[in-house]
Amino acid sequence: MTVRTVGVEEEFLLVDPATGRPRAVGQAVLAVSAADGPDDDLTAELHREQVETGTKPCHTLHELGAELRSTRATAAGAAADVGVALAPLATSPLAVEPTLSPSSRYEEMARRFGRTVSEELTCGCHVHVAIDSAEEGVAVLDRIRPWLAPLIALSANSPFWLGEDSGYASFRSQVWQRWPSAGPYGPFGSAGAYRTFVDSVLGTATVLDEGMLYLDARLSRQHPTVEVRVADVCREPDDAVLIAALTRALVQTAVDGWQAGDEPDPVRTEVLRLAAWQAGRSGMDGDLLDPSGWRPAPATDVVRRLVEHVRPALEEAGDLDTVHDLIATVLARGTGARRQREVRERTGTLAAVVRDASHPAP
């Protein structure tokens, strides 16, 4: 079997090294990066207080880990040249009024969606896994739906919002649901049905374009990939490697099931929304909904069932031992959300939370 390539896009905050507050310097960071040479891996985002990186397609988890560290280092270096730090936090712990990046598209989004845009300073981790065709990709979309919520729990890295503890491990996942085209989706059945769905969404004139199809997973418009979009940006690059490894294994498991004639789980979209909410609420520190019966179970048990679900794909890719090690690390030290709360408890300040996560460290 040829192992599918996997790539990761990460969004980051640009913060003041002293105060921890986001700074609207995204364009300056991009200019510094461009002056050092063309770099398609560092791009603008919706707000000037953030930038996005992207890895190359990778065959191995070792290669992906090196790519993630390299892209983070490049972005952090450009940020440091403008006097700010790069913060892998999925929401800003400190209150902020984001500044729109210069773009006619973003300006139209702001006009159409109001406060949803003006408050949407969130940072996600998007995983791209190679597919052979749109038909195969839609078969994947239909079959990975039950297992996306545990990826939210494993990546949870956004407990604070507007200067307060939100009560959620991933409040980014809550804020993201404000978009009318975001969240869990129903099964499509075929590439033709998926295209009909996309055309129907565009026909409503609610969203601007296909780029605003913010489903938890979708067919990429620019690459021959399935793009899974549920995870928070991870504080640790190894956690992003874990999310990517599990995502690739989910894709391969879904293709294997499709080719074997297995039907997708018919779970209703409304139940998936409940599963996603629960994952964002408690992260790895409480119960998740177990796809085997959609009843609460300890998060650690649900993640172990996820690994068992994709075990053959992990073994074929040579990823099983690495995934076991990475999960053990997350369970031992906790998610980014737990780390943020521990720093807040120890120091009493949210600025310290941001500094603790920033690259380079102040």
TrEMBL record:
It comes from the Bacteria. The keyword Cytoplasm does not apply. Coiled coil: none annotated. It is an enzyme of class 6 (ligase). Transmembrane segments: none annotated. InterPro entries: GCL_type2/YbdK_subfam, GCS2, Gln_synth/guanido_kin_cat_dom, YbdK. Gene3D superfamilies: 3.30.590.20. It catalyses: L-cysteine + L-glutamate + ATP = gamma-L-glutamyl-L-cysteine + ADP + phosphate + H(+). It holds the Pfam family GCS2. Keywords: ATP-binding, Ligase, Nucleotide-binding. One of its GO terms (molecular function) is ligase activity. The keyword Nucleotide-binding applies. Its EC number is 6.3.2.2. Belongs to the glutamate--cysteine ligase type 2 family. YbdK subfamily. HAMAP family: Glu_cys_ligase_2. ATP-dependent carboxylate-amine ligase which exhibits weak glutamate--cysteine ligase activity. This is Putative glutamate--cysteine ligase 2. It comes from Pseudonocardia xinjiangensis.
